[in-house]
Amino acid sequence: QSCSALCLLENTLCYQNMDVLMVMDRSGSMGYDNPTRLSEAKSAANGFLSKLGAGDQSGLVSFATTASLNKTLSNSHTATQSQINSLVAVGATNIGDSIKMANAELSSSRINPLAEQIMILLTDGKANKPNGPGYGEYASDVAYALAKADEAASAGIKIFTIGLGSDINATMLQQIATKTGGTYYFAPTANDLDEIFDQITTGICQKIGQLKNWFHSLGYNYLLKAKPEYFV
Questions:
Q1: Please, what is the angle between helix 37-49 and helix 193-208, to 10°?
Q2: What is the rounded distance in angstroms from the CA atom of residue 122 to the CA atom of residue 222?
Q3: Beta bridge mates, 57
Q4: What ranges in the chain are assigned the alpha helix state H?
Q5: Alpha-carbon Rg of the chain, whole angstroms?
Q6: Are 102 and 60 in contact (CB under 8 A)?
Q7: How far apart are CA 216 and CA 77, in angstroms?
Q8: How many CA atoms lie within 13 A of 71 on its CB side?
Q9: Predicted confidence (pLDDT) per residue in 164-180, tens digit
Q10: Is the confidence at residue 1, as pLDDT, over 60?
Q11: SS3 for 173?
Q12: Beta bridge partners of 162
């Protein structure tokens, strides 16, 4: 007998396939501390990516003064990790353009139309580009980021946000997550990011479907009775 349902689950993190774009801050402040915030963020993000399977896709958008699409969606999570490892901290904080760029990729021909489209946005700063001076916070850049979150919501894209440290706009990050059906997480220090990404792993699966291991725990016999079409 084949095992279409269970075999599918072997290739995914959650019960449902995911297209995940990591949206990572590489502004100058991400180079602060020792080890740096960016190095800790790289480690935590790559740990999350290592849990994804062949049924999931991953990609990378990074942002500082401008946003960049560093890696398009594919099931090569090692390639995404490689691009994350190449990030360098320099510049301002352009959250709005990063969401805009991620929206475009998560609406492109590369998505899996049967998967959930998800962003994980991590920042240690406040929106001050593309309109502002590149320091502090600029009201029109906050409004711009929220408008791009509205566009994500309209496209069915969920955004999970992480605010790192004390110099963030937690209200904005919470609004971005809430608007899109995601969740906001606060990391007091970069040392907390591994735990935050563990929480995100569970949080995403709770939002879009049950955890793979939970599904397996139901047992083969139960599935055979409840969903015989999976075993034909």
A1: 40
A2: 40
A3: 19
A4: 4-10, 37-49, 77-85, 95-105, 139-154, 170-180, 193-208, 212-217, 220-226
A5: 18
A6: no
A7: 24
A8: 25
A9: 999 999 999 999 999 99
A10: no
A11: helix
A12: 122, 185
Tokens of 90: 């320099």
Q: What is the pTM of this model?
A: 0.86
The residues facing 164 across adjacent strands are 187
Amino acid residing at 90: V
Mutual orientation of helices 77-85 and 37-49 as an angle, nearest 10°? 180
Tokens encoding 17: 């396939």
Q: What angle do CA 44, 50, 53 make, to 5 degrees?
A: 140
- Distance in angstroms (rounded) separating the CA atoms of residues 74 and 56: 8
Bond before 113 cis per omega within 30 degrees: no
**Is there a contact between 21 and 63 (Cβ–Cβ < 8 Å)?**
no
Report which secondary-structure segment, H or E, holds 22. strand 18-25
Two tokens at 83?
């691009």
CA–centroid distance for 46 within its chain: 11
* 97 CB-side CA count, 13 A: 17
- Return the closest-CA partner of residue 69 out of 110, 114, 127, 34: 110
> Residue 207 — pLDDT band, cuts 50, 70, 90?
confident
Nearest to 18 by CA among 227, 220, 212: 212
